[in-house]
Amino acid sequence: MGKKMNFFNKWFKRKKAGTFRSGWVDTGVMEGFRVTNDAIAFSSTEKGQEEDTRIVKKPIEIKEEIISEIPQINLVDIDGQIKGIKRRIKLLKELEDISGKEEEEALQYLIARKKFLKDRDSFGWKVASYSKIDSLCKKYKVRKVSFENYYKSVPTEALEELKKFICAFDKVTDTDARVELIIDDGGKETVKDPILLAHSPFGRWWYVLGAWDKEIEILDELLSEKD
Q: Is the overall model pTM greater than 0.70, yes or no?
């Protein structure tokens, strides 16, 4: 799948689990598709001179607040939708100074959706919208960070859940997976007890793979700097 897949494979066997809470939903999955243009991109909390008045909470304590409604996926004439986007991309490329980056992103979503009905049962996790995550990071002392920079906080159970997602992801798209964490921002348990997020291959939202509430003690002990 690319560099990201190699990175995830490298760490799937890491040891020492915490108490992991899966984000899998047992009662149904998405049933259609609806593209929305009102998603608010996440922006980190600015750190200036003003006092941080956000509420102190562990990520696992706000996990349920992150959950959003499952998007509706419109699969009507999916081939026609793909054809239309490809035509638009071609026209944009013929015009100088016009980028079709968002159209390319939309095309990848549409290609993945062609396989959605066949693989729908592989994507049963709860979801979180961009705007929901952004709002909660402004309300609580948490922030969204890259998986690669904070993988030591991820227990074995979470890696197994991530591997399950990557396997499902690879069946519907050949793009790189985007995986991130929501961590405590500056509190006593910074980078501990995070929430594991994986970006959907079908549109602009995140799957909530799970959360946990016990540190990875062995890795901390082995990799901490000694005086």
A: yes
- Domain-embedded: residue 205: yes
Query: Rounded to an integer, what distance in angstroms lies between the CA atom of residue 19 and that of residue 60?
Result: 11
The total number of structural domains in the chain stands at: 1
Is 183:194 a contact under the CB 8 Å cutoff? Answer: yes
Query: What are the per-10-residue average pLDDT scores of the chain (227 residues)?
Result: 52 48 54 38 49 88 89 92 93 78 94 93 93 94 90 81 95 95 76 84 94 50 44
Give the bridge partners for 126, in sequence order: 208
Phi, psi for 105 (deg, rounded to 5)? -65, -45
Least Cα distance to 216 among 145, 158, 138, 129 occurs for 158
Cα gap 155→63, rounded to integer Å: 17
Q: How wide is the angle at C-alpha 109 spanned by C-alphas 103 and 113, nearest 5°?
A: 140
Give the domain extent around 208: 3-29+54-72+122-223
Q: Where are the alpha helices (DSSP H) in the chain?
A: 3-11, 63-66, 78-93, 101-113, 116-119, 130-139, 156-172, 217-223
Asked if the structure places residue 190 within a domain, the reply is: yes
In a domain, 105, yes or no: no
